[in-house]
């Protein structure tokens, strides 16, 4: 069934650019939008491209400290590093007008949230967003302003009493967790590679929320090498039961594509087909638990040609209510554009050819299996806070 979808977009979103040697290359967003256009996603009658404005200083100030905002503005003019704010590091190089570019990404996520909250659309997306590492007072992990946290904070300011944030990026959503760690109005769930093997080194199951918000920070730390079926087993064991119990008014999701086996910065082993299944599951849960109100954000993803454009095009199609055939060929015009734009050989199909089968956790727990151990560690830490039995 078709769903109304607003895609927050401005060509200026590709100006969030740390330079030609940085792994977070804006071409991944450019290729995603081009692939989505070739499939006619933006021509669907239920899909609209939504104009955006940069987040104001006051809006950014709901999350970020005023001195940090001023430091970002200054660094974008002087192009000089500012160590206390982690500006000018290898992860977060300074670039010209970085405040303007970062504020535009933030504004796009708030626009997506407002589209859903105000009833303009059932679903909304900012595919250039999901910069989930940025902290209130410093840049972190390729992220200058935390648009994901800002979108959630905006919803709370409008009167939302329960907002759920589910992060499926390979890296822990540490910035969003930090902002809402003491706030029981926000349920943050992050599924990520174990902090023992990957940046940022946080996201252990024992990180469950501050006083009065125990159990509202949820972390599933998966071992390196986890594949589609095992990842989805963990998802099924944790995310649906918590969302059903919490009953959010809005579901905000971050869809980093860096869980893919080809991603050069991480160690999980998912496929485009597994990632497509994740989008479908989150869409279903938005309808079941949040009245269909779903805000979709991008995130990480560093295999810029083979993975990100296909995964996020599937995501946008899913959010529109009409999924693409995974066996479809990639359009020839897009392949030509990829070669011209990047010099790389494009993928020929919208699938990796994987069939994803999942054995539910309830079918049996294997105490020797590291994924089952991760599942049980999380359930034991957070389920009792919600009146739920971790063994069921």
TrEMBL record:
- Pathways involved: Ketone degradation; acetoin degradation
Q: Which Pfam families match?
A: Hist_deacetyl
Judging by the UniProt lineage, the source's domain of life is: Bacteria
Q: What are the residue boundaries of the Histone deacetylase domain, all occurrences included? A: 22-317
UniProt cross-references to InterPro entries, sorted A to Z: AcuC, HDACs, His_deacetylse_dom, His_deacetylse_dom_sf, Ureohydrolase_dom_sf
Keywords for this entry?
Acetoin catabolism
Similarity section: Belongs to the histone deacetylase family.
Q: What is this protein called?
A: Acetoin utilization protein AcuC
């Amino acid at each position: 069934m078709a769903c109304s979808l607003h895609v927050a977009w401005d060509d200026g979103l590709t100006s969030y650019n740390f330079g030609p040697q940085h792994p977070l290359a804006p071409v991944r967003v450019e290729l995603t939008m081009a692939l989505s256009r070739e499939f006619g996603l933006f021509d669907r009658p239920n899909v609209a491209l939504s104009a955006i404005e940069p987040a104001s200083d006051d809006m950014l100030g709901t999350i970020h400290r005023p001195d940090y905002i001023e430091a970002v503005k200054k660094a974008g003019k002087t192009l000089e590093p500012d160590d206390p704010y982690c500006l000018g590091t290898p992860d977060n190089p300074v670039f010209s007008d970085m405040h303007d570019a970062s504020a535009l990404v933030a504004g796009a996520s708030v626009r997506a949230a407002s589209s859903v909250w105000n009833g303009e659309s059932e679903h909304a997306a900012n595919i250039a967003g999901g910069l989930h590492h940025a902290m209130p007072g410093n840049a972190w992990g390729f992220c200058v302003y935390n648009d994901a946290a800002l979108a959630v904070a905006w919803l709370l300011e409008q009167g939302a009493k329960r907002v759920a944030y589910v992060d499926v990026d390979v890296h822990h959503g540490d910035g969003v967790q930090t902002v809402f760690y003491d706030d029981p109005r926000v349920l943050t769930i992050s599924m990520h590679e174990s902090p023992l093997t990957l940046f940022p080194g946080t996201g252990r199951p024992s990180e469950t929320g501050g006083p009065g918000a125990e159990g509202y920070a949820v972390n599933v730390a998966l071992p390196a090498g986890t594949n589609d079926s095992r990842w989805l087993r963990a998802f099924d064991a944790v995310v649906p039961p918590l969302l059903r119990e919490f009953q959010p008014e809005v579901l905000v999701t971050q869809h980093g594509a860096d869980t893919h086996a080809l991603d050069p910065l991480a160690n999980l082993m998912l496929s485009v087909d597994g990632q497509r299944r994740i989008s479908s599951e989150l869409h279903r849960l938005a309808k079941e638990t949040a009245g269909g109100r779903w805000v979709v954000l991008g995130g990480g993803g560093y295999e810029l040609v083979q993975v990100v454009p296909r995964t996020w095009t599937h995501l946008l199609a899913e959010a529109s209510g009409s999924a693409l055939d995974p066996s479809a060929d990639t359009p020839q015009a897009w392949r030509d554009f990829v070669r011209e734009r990047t010099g790389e050989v494009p993928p020929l199909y919208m699938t990796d050819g994987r069939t994803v089968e999942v054995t539910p956790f309830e079918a049996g727990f294997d105490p020797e299996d590291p994924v089952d151990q991760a599942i049980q560690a999380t359930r034991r830490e957070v389920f009792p806070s919600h009146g739920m039995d971790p063994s069921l």
